[in-house]
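testing teh design pipeline on a random one, pls ignore if ur not involved
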């Protein structure tokens, strides 16, 4: 009420008040971690801080099944933000939220207790972390690493990482050619619309439709770029002050730009004016950063004039694997 002059919504609904409440809750979570981080550093100068969140497999920030990585990266003060055994897509999502070399991962040591995993399953993750922008990694299930004689495989992974760092891998970064700009507001507000509002297809499965934004992000980053070996930088539109000079990138990909602020849209448009190629997938900025409809989508004129490309295919229909 102090922030917006209105009461906390009594129920979930596709309204501005409810979306503001969710955003405020995200912010409070980020600031809580920021408070803990600052307190630890004040009491123990030089302390190393990291997090190990569970992978947000349910694809939702709305019901405590996932944490908004970008908010924690911006407000949490966490030196290395991480999760347990996520694949390269997961590592890149952490790096996008917290910064290059500011992500970590806790990998499982011999996840299955009835047979010995191949050594590459143990030493591979350490190389994933290094090559995809992570700053550290560790393992759990130590007893199974020892039980199945995989200690040497773990040592081998760290040793290979050391060799790569001696060759300059630590300081290497993707070239500024492709930028992926995700939007947590877009995934959240589309999910609110899917769960509690009116959908373009009234008979759509609301649970599946609510994950549409997540699927677009995953498809563009993992299936389009990572699996085909394209280097890229990944950033969040929700933090315009962290976008940098987007015109340094030849191509800018917006996987699901349903909600975008005027400030972020202006930075993207400026990059296009300076020669960057803009490719949008399905959405063109139909709402502002709060999910409120615009009179005209933020990038509609760029698409109509041919200055931007809109991929109109439903990625659920043409890009899904199951």
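output:
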């Amino acid at each position: 009420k102090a922030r917006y002059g209105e009461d906390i919504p009594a129920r979930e609904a596709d309204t501005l008040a409810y979306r503001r409440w969710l955003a405020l809750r995200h912010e409070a979570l980020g600031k809580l971690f920021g408070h803990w981080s600052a307190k630890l550093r004040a009491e123990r100068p030089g302390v190393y801080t990291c997090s190990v969140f569970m992978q947000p497999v349910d694809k939702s920030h709305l019901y405590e099944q996932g944490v908004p990585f970008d908010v924690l990266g911006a407000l949490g003060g966490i030196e290395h933000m991480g999760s347990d055994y996520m694949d390269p897509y997961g590592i890149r999502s952490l790096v996008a939220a917290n910064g290059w070399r500011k992500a970590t991962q806790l990998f499982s040591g011999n996840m299955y207790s009835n047979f010995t995993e191949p050594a590459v399953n143990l030493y591979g993750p350490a190389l994933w972390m290094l090559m995809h922008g992570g700053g550290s990694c560790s393992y759990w299930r130590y007893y199974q690493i020892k039980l199945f004689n995989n200690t040497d495989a773990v040592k081998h992974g760290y040793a290979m990482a050391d060799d790569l760092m001696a060759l300059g891998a630590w300081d290497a970064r993707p070239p500024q050619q492709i930028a992926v700009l995700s939007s947590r507001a877009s995934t959240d507000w589309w999910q609110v619309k899917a769960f509690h509002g009116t959908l373009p297809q009234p008979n759509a499965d609301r649970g599946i439709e609510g994950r549409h934004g997540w699927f677009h992000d995953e498809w563009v980053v993992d299936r389009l770029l990572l699996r085909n070996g394209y280097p890229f930088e990944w950033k969040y539109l929700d933090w315009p002050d962290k976008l940098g000079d987007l015109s340094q990138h030849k191509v800018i990909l917006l996987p699901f730009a349903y909600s975008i602020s005027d400030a972020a849209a202006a930075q993207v448009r400026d990059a296009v004016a300076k020669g960057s190629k803009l490719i949008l997938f399905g959405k063109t900025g139909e709402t502002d950063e709060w999910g409120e409809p615009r009179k005209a989508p933020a990038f509609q004129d760029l698409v109509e004039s041919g200055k931007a490309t809109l991929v109109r295919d439903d990625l659920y229909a043409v890009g899904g694997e199951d």
